Amino acid sequence: MGAVPDAPGGSLEFAGATSTRQSAPRQVTENGLSVTVSAPKVFTPTEAASPRAPRAVAFDVVIDNERTSVYRPAQLSVTATSDGATAIQVIDSTQGYTGLVSATEEVPPGHNVRVAVAFALPAEPAAFRLIVQPDALAGSRMTVYQGTV
């Protein structure tokens, strides 16, 4: 089954965010990895956050390894855009947002890895798009969230 790059959906409302399009909650790549992404969580970064931002949006990304071989999270790429420009990842370990660097251990078949990622937002609501590429070598990219946050 191939990735669903931009599956249309109904209007969904989350705390602090409205989505007019959102992909399927769980998507399976052609190489046996599935991706599940939480609803967006808009928050105020702490003083310890880097970089500093007036607001941020966080997602829990879970990659299930349904292959017969080990999955290496170093292959994972999570990117985003805010109002069409590249969104910068926010590290706010005080609130549990440690980013991709926290996912370092190999994932055996039948297991998963959870990564909490956050991205900087402007002070006002913005169009936001989250893109996950579970295996950068395989090249399949999926839009897993698209909406206003």
Count of runs of 4 or more consecutive helical residues: 0
Distance between the termini: 30 Å
Strands side by side in the biggest sheet: 1-2-11-10-7-8
The portion of residues assigned to helices is: under 10%
| Low-confidence blocks of residues | 1-24
CA radius of gyration is: 15 Å
> Structural class of the secondary structure composition?
mainly beta
How are helices and strands ordered from N to C? EEEEEEEEEEE
Report the portion of residues in β strands: 35-45%
Major sheet summary line: 6 strands, antiparallel
Number of strands: 11
Outline: globular
Q: If you average the pLDDT, what whole number results?
A: 82
Question: Can you walk through the features of this model?
Answer:
The protein is mostly beta strands. The protein is built from no helices and eleven strands. The strands form two sheets. A six-stranded antiparallel β-sheet has the order 1-2-11-10-7-8, with no helix packed on it.
